[in-house]
């Protein structure tokens, strides 16, 4: 494991790199709005990816690196994310397929930037379909806009709702709520199986 800072138009981002022995692809994972890269579901997903030969970069957005708790506007998050993806894709992950992913707010960033960042797949942990108690204010357009394969891992009792499976989109429901703390082994199984399957045609 190693850490490095990467410049973006909105200040430096920080990445924590976990490299598999033989990398077949690279997974970039972003954190939630108020949390960091140590969230249990991100740790479980990173472990799963490495187990199937996928390098992992856990990405801290510039606002977190700067010590701010309130998230930056969506456009700034997306711009910073793409800057990190471009730097890693031209450097340590050169010539590797990139998978975008994250939890909650980070999952939304991954969906919004997937096409521009040429991600081959998108992993969404605890995708916040709508604010709690406000199903009419849904964000499903962000999921629908992704053309690449998508895996959504969602808690059965998530107050932020849950999306339905669709073309190119699989949904795995696990015990627990939005934190996805209750079943880390379930996350590891779901993510490792899905990554191995969607990347196989690219090997």
UniProtKB/TrEMBL annotation:
| InterPro entries listed in its UniProt record | AB_hydrolase_fold (IPR029058), KANL3/Tex30_Abhydrolase (IPR046879), NSL3/Tex30 (IPR026555)
Question: Is Hydrolase tagged as a keyword?
Answer: yes
A Pfam family in this protein? Answer: Abhydrolase_11
Q: Which Gene3D superfamilies match?
A: alpha/beta hydrolase (3.40.50.1820)
- Transmembrane regions listed in the UniProt entry: none
The record's GO molecular-function terms, alphabetically, read: hydrolase activity
Q: Where is the KANL3/Tex30 alpha/beta hydrolase-like domain?
A: 24-182
Q: What keyword terms does UniProt attach to this protein?
A: Hydrolase
- Which domain of life does the UniProt lineage start with? Bacteria
Full protein name: Alpha/beta hydrolase
């Amino acid at each position: 494991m190693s850490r490095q800072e990467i410049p973006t138009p909105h200040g430096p981002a920080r990445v924590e790199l976990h490299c598999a022995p033989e990398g077949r692809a690279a997974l970039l994972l972003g954190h939630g709005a108020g949390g960091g890269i140590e969230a249990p579901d991100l740790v479980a997903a990173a472990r799963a990816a490495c187990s199937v030969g996928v390098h992992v970069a856990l990405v801290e957005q510039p606002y977190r690196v700067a010590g701010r708790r309130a998230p930056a506007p969506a456009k700034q998050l997306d711009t910073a994310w793409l800057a990190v993806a471009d730097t890693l894709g031209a450097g340590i992950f050169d010539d590797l397929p990139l998978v975008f992913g994250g939890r909650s707010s980070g999952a939304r960033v991954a969906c919004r930037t997937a096409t521009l960042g040429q991600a081959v797949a998108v992993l969404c942990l605890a995708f916040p379909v709508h604010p709690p108690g406000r199903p009419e204010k849904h964000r499903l357009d962000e999921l629908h806009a992704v053309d690449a394969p998508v895996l959504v891992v969602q808690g059965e009792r998530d107050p932020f709702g849950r999306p339905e499976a669709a073309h190119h989109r699989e949904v795995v429901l696990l015990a627990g709520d939005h934190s996805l703390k209750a079943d880390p082994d379930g996350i590891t199984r779901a993510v490792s199986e899905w990554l191995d399957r969607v990347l196989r045609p690219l090997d």
